[in-house]
Every structure is written in C-alpha cells, then in structure tokens.
Amino acid sequence: MVKIAVAGGSGQVGREVVDALVAAKKHEITILSRTDISVSDSTPGVIWRTVDYNDKSKLAEALHGIHTVLSFTQLLADPENTAQKNLIDAAVVAGVKRFAPSQWGSASTMDMPWWAGKDKITEYLKKVNENGRVLEYTLFQPGLFLEYLAAPYKTAKHLEPLNTMIDFQNRRAIVVDGYDSIMTCTTVQDLAAVIVRAVDLEGEWPVVGGISGNRVPISHILKVGEKVRGRPFTVEKVKVEDLENGILTTSWKLESSHPSVTGDQVEKMLKTVLIGTLLSSVKGAWDVSDEMNQLLPEFKFTQLEDFLTEAWRGKP
C-alpha cells in the first residue's frame, strides 16, 4: 500500500481515477481541494484535505508521507500554472516519489493554445530534475476519450459528453482535405484502470506515459460510424491553409464546451478548439505512443467498434 494524493480530484477525469483507485482497495487516497466538500462526499477510503495552492509550506505539509501525486488541476483557470508549480515544489520538499502532471490528453499541444500550460509544466519538471532526478514523473497521455464519440449520451459516471469533429448523433464529420489523420482513442475507464496498475509498478515510470487504447485513422472511425449508425456520414472538408488563418467555413461547429469555459468566451473557445483539434491532428498530435501498454501487456483495452456499437445501440 502507498499513499496517493490527487490534486483536482473533484473534477471529471480525477473522479473517474479516484473511483478506480478506491475500488482497488490497495492504497490510502487523499484528495486535495481548494474548497471543503468532504461533508458532501463520504467515499470510504478517501480523505479530503482543503489546501491553498498559493501556500507552498502548507502544501508540503499536506504531502508529508505521500508516495504518488496525481494532478488534475484545471489549466484554463490558472494561466500562470501557479498551482502545479507550487505543487511540484511542495512535492520535492515533502519527499514525494512520483508525480503525474495534468496531461490526460494528446501527445503534443501544437495548435492547441488552451493546453499551453502542459508544455510549461513539462519544462518546469525538466528543470527540477536538471541536476539529477529529484522527482520521478510521467506524462499520462490517453489521446481522445472514446466516450466523446457517444455525445450527447453520457457513458461514464463522471465524464460529461463533449462533441468533436466527428458527430455520431447527426452522422456527420469535419475532416482536413488531403489528410487521414491518426487518432488515439481510449475510454476514461481504461485510463483509470491503467493508472491503478501504474501506481503498483515497481520500476521507474517512463517520462512519457502513452496509453494507446485504439490507434486508428479518422477514415476507420467514420467507417465504424457508418456501420453502427446505419448510413453514411456527411463529410465536410476544410483546408489546412484556411485553418492556419483561423478560417472555418463549415455548416456546423462544436456545441458543447468544458464547464471551465463560461460566458461570452464559449463561442470563441469552441471555434478555437475545433480549428486547433483539426490542425493538430494532421500534425500527429493525437498519435499517442504506447509506453504504458508495453509495461502492462496483459491489460485488454476496450475496442473502438465494441464501445461504439454498444453506445449507439437503439439510439435514434
């Protein structure tokens, strides 16, 4: 048994991982939260601790005796990355062995400015270890959550639906003309299950922790979509040069956004996310590596066609 601290553990992905860790019944789990919500959450095996991410000494105190820190802190709400930098510093002071920063997505952030903080934190971790390893860390990267292809239907306990450039409900898609980009799609449940197993690994974590549930070209996703949805998808093509210039001439756009984006920023962010996802896909950002697959060869990932067949069974 080891002691695990989960920062941002009240968020969607964090809660999926916490549930899996609790179900494993192996470790003592502490959730670090800016607000005290322990009264409304009495999950057995979980300790809630209210922290101030601006107070490094108090953070170090909260991390005393902790073996592994998993961070799910919200990047958009902290453009200076203060919370994670202070969390890393506190982890070093407290003698934490392992740290997983808030990654949980693509292999690269190119053309995705809303995730720029990920690169800054990666550089910060490199700097912390530049004179010898002080803090073992890995960048967990599962690609696109497969559950998003079931939008608007919710297929996970905590992860809320988000629509993408492949819209199964309306049988349509937006693709980049001349490209058949590789996408890595992994269910959030598989991600959580891999994290549970990764915590138990005795060797050193790889710096990049790629988790490749399904590595497929977009054309394959569309082929599966047409099979499970019963008829061909309407496909609109956009050009790279238009996307590079911020031009989006499609008949439809994304409609659902992350809860951290509110007010008059929603429409602008949805356009930015769609353009960024399309551009980054043609540059290989969603072609995630498989380091964790290799370390866990016995683990069986949920297959894309099986998941989508079940998710869309009987749906109009």
Automatic annotation (TrEMBL):
Gene3D superfamilies: NAD(P)-binding Rossmann-like Domain (3.40.50.720). Residues 3-308 form the NmrA-like domain. Keywords: NADP, Oxidoreductase. GO terms for molecular function: oxidoreductase activity. Pfam families: NmrA. The keyword ATP-binding does not apply. Coiled coil: none annotated. Belongs to the NmrA-type oxidoreductase family. Isoflavone reductase subfamily. This is NmrA-like domain-containing protein.
